[in-house]
Amino acid sequence: MNHQELLKILQAVEQRKLSPAQAVERLKHLPFEDLGFAKVDHHRALRQGFAEVIFGKGKTPAQVAGIVSAMLAKKASRHNILITRADAKIFAAVRRLSKTAKFHPGSGVITIERNGEISGKGTIAVVSAGTSDIPVAEEALLAARMMGNRTEQLYDVGVAGIHRLLDHRSLLVEARVVICVAGMEGALPSVVGGLVAAPVIAVPTSVGYGASFGGVAALLGMLNSCASNVTVVNIDNGFGAACVASCINRR
Q: Given strand 230-232, what is the order of strands in its sheet?
């Protein structure tokens, strides 16, 4: 449930189109619905602007399907449903509930699009240093889209061939927020930060050889960026970057 839906219910009661008992029936699962193994936060969109996102890793297909079923039951909400870190087994369970569910195997994201409304003011650009960083970049891209943002993508433009990035400078300059995804030494966000005035959200990935320590080297490099408009999320956290970028883009 979001702000507009709650307002409609209250206005319907005021106009005697809906009885108080009927309003209670619609609101009885706020702020959450207890499934035993999960407490589905139906109040999330009202508080934060986007519905609860399901983290698939560590959950059984039946558990994910149970949460999705609870969300789909709220037909008045019509919010998009996003599942991250999913696999083919989880998708099979979700697909039985919704024929519109789509699985994006490269990023492990499942999407159920029920609302195509654009709420973001500008464009979120998602940039990856290398092709190997694309799975994390795709998680960010899909999450940003499902949260109601226009997006642009620019892949494989790392510092090993900086001319590839500079050839697309206009895309970067026009973006309201840039999500920059990089592994290895994590240098790309600093370069992008020096080119644009917009906030740059850096995402370190676990891509790299042994001395990269599973993304720790990129994380530390980004945290020590000399570009003052760069901020950093956790290793491989494309979703987290998209969420922050969406918050910025709605303001």
A: 150-154, 123-128, 177-182, 200-204, 230-232
pLDDT digits (tens, 9 = 90+) for 60-118: 999 999 999 988 887 656 788 999 999 999 999 999 999 999 999 999 999 999 888 88
Supply the CATH classification number for the domain 123-250: 3.40.50.1970
Transcribe 61-73 into DSSP letters: HHHHHHHHHHHHT
Q: Round the CA-based radius of gyration of the chain to a whole number and report it.
A: 20
Whether the link from the prior residue into 31 is cis, omega within 30° of 0, is yes
**156 burial type by CB count under 10 A (0-12 exposed, 13-18 middle, 19+ buried):** middle
Domain ranges of the chain: 3-112, 123-250
pTM as predicted: 0.84
Distance CA 166, CA 112 (A): 35
